[in-house]
Amino acid sequence: MRPSGRQTDEMRTVSLETGVTKYAEGSCMARFGDTHVLCTASIETRVPPWLRGKGSGWVTAEYGMLPRSTSERMNREAARGKQSGRTQEIQRLIGRSLRAVTDLKAMGEIQITVDCDVIQADGGTRTASITGAYVALFMAFEKLVKTGALKSIPITDQVAAVSCGLYKGAAVLDLDYIEDSDAEADTNFVLTASGGIVEVQGTAEDKPFTQEQFMELMRLARLGVDELCLAQRAVLSQNI
Predict the structure, then answer these.
(1) Which end of the chain is less congested by CB atoms within 10 angstroms, N or C?
(2) Which positions are tagged coiled coil (predicted)?
């Protein structure tokens, strides 16, 4: 029995809410149970120096946790003077995930930065960030099309992410913090709606897990991502 009472293949309650900020060109509040992440997409009419004059755009991401997003207050990374290795790793993962489904050449020389700010953390902040960031990015592209800056939305597929793990010997979908902190194996899957694999992160916390267990985790991840992609389509269709 999982601490939450969920079935092994059951997601937490997922909510994707758009239009949650006044100024960002795209915004989404992604809620995976008690993990809440605010994702905002900002359009900039410039690209990094190494892309100037090449006719290509860029999509990047930044990630951070608010001081009281966890049970005890943490210092802001700005106050410490540098980002942690974890923060840098997660924001690079988000950026890679979004670029994997974006036609950068079709963007022209435009950059979109997606900021993912964790309001409340209960496990799976990176997967919630990626899922919500896709929605915010899509909305920013919609705005560029409406203003005539782009002829069409340069997105080639949907992308979403979910965590899976081995908890008390069982493969389970969408770990919350209690499960994650006591898991025998923890994996994050970034997958596309069409069945593609963008990235898989997996770690055995105790003894190595088997290929058969990994395949079961992959099966659960596909179920979860299919559900998340359906939620993405549903919320984006409300903006048309």
Answers:
(1) C
(2) none
